[in-house]
Amino acid sequence: MQNKGDNGMKYNNETSEKIMKVSLKLFSEQGYYPTTTKQIAEEAGVNELTIFRHFGSKSNLFQVTTEHYVIDSRVDYILNDIEDLSFEEGMLLIANRIYKLFIQNTKLYKVQMKLSDNEQGFVKLKLSRKIISILIEYFNELKERKVIEGEPEIMAVTLVNSLLGAFTVEILGDNTVSDLKWEDIVKEHTRQFVSIYKL
C-alpha cells in the first residue's frame, strides 16, 4: 500500500524513493537553497517535471524527505531490558542507544545544521523530542521510586543535549577533533550525569 501526503501525492514508490535518496544526499552536502531541483533530477536520472509531479514543490520535497528518513519509529526500544539493571548500567545502555540513533540520522542532522535560523521551520525532526518525552516518563518513575533526585524534564533535556552536542562536534570535526571513540565519550557523559542525579 502506498503512503500519501496531505495533498494526496504518493511517495512510497521506486521513483519517489530514488528522488528522496538523492535529495537527502544533496541537501546534507549543500544545504536547502543551493540545491536545485534540476541537480536532484540529473543525479536521480529523472526529468525535473517528474519531481514536481511527485512532490509538488521543492519545499514539500524537502519536508517529505526529512520526515521520511527520520529513524524514530523504534525510539521506545531505548528502554528495553533495563528493568534488572542498576541506574548506572541502565543509563549507559540508554545513552549508547540514543547516540546510535543520532548516528543513524547523521545526514538529517547535517541538513538541519546547514539551515539558517529563519529556515529552521523547514525541518521538523521529531527524533530528539520523542527521546526526551520517553526519558521524562522514565525519570518520573525513578523519582517516585527514590532512585534519583532532580527535575525529570531538565534531566531528559540535559542528557539529550549533552549527547547531541558530542555528536555534533564529532560530525563537524570529521573525526579530527579527537581520537577518542564515541563509546568512551558517551560513557563519560553518562558517568557525570549519574553522579549528579543518583540518590
Automatic annotation (TrEMBL):
PROSITE patterns: HTH_TETR_2. Residues 36-55 bind DNA. Keywords: DNA-binding. One of its GO terms (molecular function) is DNA binding. It holds the Pfam family TetR_N. InterPro entries: Homeodomain-like_sf, HTH-type_Tx_Regulator, HTH_TetR. The keyword DNA-binding applies. The keyword DNA-binding applies. It comes from the Bacteria. Residues 13-73 form the HTH tetR-type domain. This is TetR/AcrR family transcriptional regulator. It comes from Clostridium sartagoforme. The lineage of its organism: Bacteria, Bacillati, Bacillota, Clostridia, Eubacteriales.
